[in-house]
Write a structure and sequence with these properties.
Elements (H helix, E strand, L loop, with lengths): L5 H11 L8 H18 L8 H20 L1 H24 L5 H8 L3 H24 L3 H4 L7 H19 L3 H12 L4 H8 L3 H23 L11 H15 L4 H4 L5 H5 L8
Helix pairs in contact: 1-2, 1-3, 2-3, 3-6, 4-5, 4-6, 5-6, 6-11, 8-11, 8-12, 9-11, 10-11, 11-12
Length: about 270
Amino acid sequence: MREHLPLVQYAVSDMVGRIPRQVPRDDLVSAAMVGLAQAARSFDPDRGISFERYASTRIRGALIDELRSRDWASRSVRFKARRMAVCVEDLTAELGRTPTTDELAARMGVSANTVDTLTDDVHRAVVLNYDSVIAEGDAEDVLPAETACPESVMLDRERHAYLGDAIEALPERLRHVVVGYFFEERPMLQLAEELGVSESRISQMRAEALSLLKEGINSQLDPDSQLAESSSTRVARRKSAYFAAVCSGSHWKTRLTERSTAARLGARSPAIA
């Protein structure tokens, strides 16, 4: 444990930038230490996994458990996020386009800065949910083995393919933001200059794209999850068209050979996820 204490600080520092500022850093350090202790007790070198990799997964899982136990997203973010989503759908139907930050703020009766802050919190919640999926379970379930079983390989390729389909089906400007920010790791300022908008607008577009991607992928992997009502018939039609585009994006045979979403999208640098 003494030898690998730096893993604790590294994991906490990585997490702090993606969660609300009110979460005490000391509590995160304590949770990470618990994860390191659990890793030290349960580590089995015969599995062929290094302790550093095994402990990193345990530490990250402990941090996710600590954050989820606080349930900060469901109390302070999710209610506002649902309200903002309804306003976005209503304004999109009325204006025939995605509303600006100022227009959304006026509809919600708050300042533009409040909208930007909420958008960032929603983005952090999405990242946290994604991390929790990766962190749940034992290390042997989430860490790559030297020889992955055929079922895991096929499932992974299918997910990559549907992700690629969902990204390619996005509106052009949202697709530009997703590819540039997540796959090419380019700063929001550069993307804002290319699209002629503000950085806060890029942040809003990123959150909108993530929500669409999630729904688009789930429309194929879990169709029953897409039965939620919409506040606008026009928005519902647009989403249905988007789901149909994702569905027709690739054939099941080509999905079996999908390996890299970044390569498929022609990204300039390797994807970060």
